[in-house]
Specification:
395 residues; alpha+beta; Butyryl-CoA Dehydrogenase, subunit A, domain 3; 3 domains; 14% strand
Length: 395
């Protein structure tokens, strides 16, 4: 066994041992049908536990708690979090990845010193990228920022901002120039969500959750000191934001799905030996489990290539598209065990298959056909970058 492999296994055992002791008891039951304040407090407490253990910021630079880990080490930590069924840091995902990594690469010393310690202390960030008519085509955004001395005055609307109603700050893309190419006129700002003129409206989903919000901006004054980079660099900086987690999210989600098989079998009435008496259900479960294994193999192959520093091209789109399909099949089969109407829940710590309410999870699974790039956009990327198909233009 090489030293590198030995060190990874040591990290795995250390992480596993810490999780066995520190995962909150019965956390899933406590977070089912809970209210916002209880959810927020639970997330803050769990965030502080993971930060103290160096498990929340292994992707941060050296000098931060647990920072400076290699991608291979980060993968081990994510795998163990999923294996242990640890709560996900839904509230802090944008803060820990998108905001932190963008600040580390593009922030001024003053911006880093202000926000990075604050994130570790619990500062919540949201993302203001998508707009009603600029989601998949982000370069078409119309939110306008006009320079006024040492401030920008911003007017516009953002949508699908994850947990924006709870955020302290927002990563905001605005248009400062409309005269040239669309990408060239975009600027990146850091917006205090308590600024005058900011109105946040949670979006009630079919599940009853309010996981997303729309943000209305009317004459919002944002200091020029809160700009990342120069005017017109927003598109380039946004690529750092969007690439900040390097496949770790889909790795964690696929691992959690794989480890959730027992929950599905239990819901379908499997015996103590894990076998289903109903032949049709058994066939369908085997089909879904094969899909999960195929997804896991695809993700591990992609992550292995990323560890080696290789370009994965359109593979990420293939994985994301397949995950959305497998998740739908998984939750649809679970729904067979729970045909009753959806139980309304103000907020549930779920990620598409984790709540135990199969009606809820099935409806929530549709989100993954849109989130992170719709299935249609993923198919376009696959056809162009993987299959090298020509882009057709229609009148």
């Amino acid at each position: 066994m090489s030293d590198d492999v030995r060190q990874l296994e040591q990290l795995r055992m250390q992480t596993r041992a810490w999780l066995e002791v520190n995962i909150p008891q019965d956390w899933r039951a406590a977070m089912t049908d809970t209210q916002d304040q209880a959810f927020l407090q639970f997330q803050r407490n769990w965030m502080q536990s993971l930060v103290s253990a160096g498990l929340a910021t292994s992707h941060w630079h050296v000098g931060w708690p647990g920072g400076g880990r290699s991608l291979a080490e980060q993968i081990v930590i994510v795998e163990e979090l999923a294996r242990a069924d640890a709560p996900r840091l839904i509230l802090y995902f944008i803060s820990l990845y998108h905001a932190a990594m963008t600040l580390m690469e593009w922030g001024t010393p003053e911006q880093k010193n202000k926000h990075l310690p604050a994130i570790l202390a619990g500062e919540v960030w949201c993302q203001g990228f998508s707009e009603p008519n600029a989601g998949s085509d982000l370069a078409s955004l119309k939110t306008r920022a006009v320079r006024d001395g040492d401030h920008y005055i911003v007017d516009g609307q953002k949508i699908w901002s994850t947990l924006g109603q709870h955020a302290d700050y927002c990563l905001l893309l605005v248009r400062t120039d409309a005269s040239g190419p669309k990408q060239a006129g975009i600027t990146f700002l850091l917006m205090d969500m308590r600024s005058k003129g900011v109105e946040v409206r949670p979006i009630r989903q079919i599940t009853g959750d309010e996981e997303f919000a729309e943000i209305f901006l009317t004459g919002v004054r944002i200091p020029v000191a809160n700009r990342l980079g120069e005017e017109g660099q927003g598109w380039r900086i946004a690529q750092t934001t969007l690439n900040s987690e390097r496949g770790l999210t889909i790795l964690e989600l696929s691992e959690r799905l794989s480890h959730s098989r027992w929950r599905l079998l239990e819901a379908l009435g499997a015996g103590a030996d894990g076998q289903l008496a109903d032949d049709q259900l058994r066939r369908e479960a085997v089909d879904v489990f094969i899909q999960i294994d195929a997804l896991s193999a695809m993700v591990k192959d992609m992550m292995g290539r990323l560890v080696e520093g290789l370009d994965v091209g359109g593979t990420a789109s293939m994985v994301k598209l397949f995950y959305a399909q497998v998740l739908r099949s998984f939750t649809a089969l679970g729904l067979r065990s729970q045909p009753a109407a959806l139980q309304q829940q103000p907020f549930t710590l779920g990620g598409g298959h984790e709540t135990g309410n199969w009606s809820f999870d099935y409806m929530n699974s549709f989100m993954w056909t849109i989130a992170g790039g719709s299935n249609e956009i993923q198919r376009n990327i696959i056809s162009e970058r993987v299959l090298a198909m020509p882009r057709e233009k229609y009148a």
